[in-house]
Structure prediction request, 474 residues.
Amino acid sequence: MFADKIISTPFTTDEANSYFNIHHSNSMDASFPSTLRALAAPRTKGESFVHSVRHIQAASLNDIWRVMSEVTYRLEVITCTSLVLERLKNAPALPLGYVRVKKVTDFFAKYFEVVCFTNADRKATFVMLNDRLLKAYHYLQTAIPVMLPWYFPPEEGLSELEMELIKSLKEKTPDKYMACLEKIAVQYDFRESFIRKQLDGIELEYEKRQIDALKIRIRDKKEVIEEYNLKIRECLISIRKDTATLMGLELGLSQKEGNSEILDYFICNKSVELIGVLESRLTFVVTGTLTYFDTDMLESLIRNPDSYLFHYANENMPDLLRAIFIEEALKLRVCAGFYIDFAERAGGLNGYDFPDRFSSYLPNPHVNDYECLGTAREVINLALQNHDFISVIEQCIVAATNLNFGDSTVIKSFMKTMYGQSDKSNRTFIELPDGSTVTPAEALAWIGQRNGIEAMVSNADSQESGGEEYDLPF
Prediction:
């Protein structure tokens, strides 16, 4: 029974919460909803189910019976005082349809006191215990199949992986438990489900709002015609234009079938991660490696010891910059947040707080610090006018993977990170030839080691033509 608090699992992410019909509230940590979803989700057959936790200091049996008689599709864990628990253990009668599960009480007796009541008609289970420690909360989950017999008929049994998950709850550390959840989570595509729910029909809804807006405008202008005869000609022209636009939109709406381009794009493009959608505005994060930069300008800056690349001292920095941008032996991984508003606006997310899963990427300083999209801005504006949102996303990718060495303000900020002097310096955004990612400080050490080995090999070759050969480790 591990006592570590489980903060998050693959089954409690935003994408997972959107995917499952098993909901939770006031959980002591993320373990119980995760175990429930991993075990019960395939068996609920689409039924919505709620797990909740609460503590009662004092309550009469009638109050508790009333709550039990009102709920359906629920697994409620209640921590209570020993006095309340004693009343429940000795209760002469239970609410209609509920039965006492003595097996649960007996099984946990030597660890903590617990009573369990189930109602197969309501598909409701109430578990009361007098222990508020996480250990008890974790160990209690091993009895989920017994607590929910309508989802776990004894004759069907559990799979080997499900048994492994239950057994892991008895371990002293959560390592095996988390590993089992990862194995089970592979069976689900939370990302695609999240994208589909967020984006399905977004373009159609936007166009419907346009149609409604145009209809209102037409109505208003007809009223203007009645009130101001002098403006009849002007209003009739405007009506004809808006009606033509309305007819085109309605015709286009009637011809649209299947998934939208944007939905398909987000599902297929792994380097673009959808963050969320609010009305006509969607936000997303682009990841990749720096691709667009001027190597000639960089080389001239490296050769100038007084350039703004060298405000801090490290003898390996010139070689590190060459290895990344000129030799391309190393890669620099970047990310950037963006938004697109279907009302013809798009831009970078200045100062966006990236989730931990982007810790191996450097937020692009142009976008993240200054909301600058460079030359991509002009192309984005043109694409927005044409409602070409795929081209807008493509140009956001260009902006995210661009670094302009001619912008001294941005490059100074970038070099401060490279020298280990900023709060982003502990990110592992530099990719070594073997695919591993390291911090700038670790990359500088790697360059120093490489230079030392090359110097050693060069000296050995010059001393003796038939001397011993040395292999480089890369």
In short: The chain has three domains: 14-188, 196-259, 269-455. DSSP finds 20 helices and 13 strands in the chain. The longest strand covers residues 331-341. Residues 269-455 form one domain.
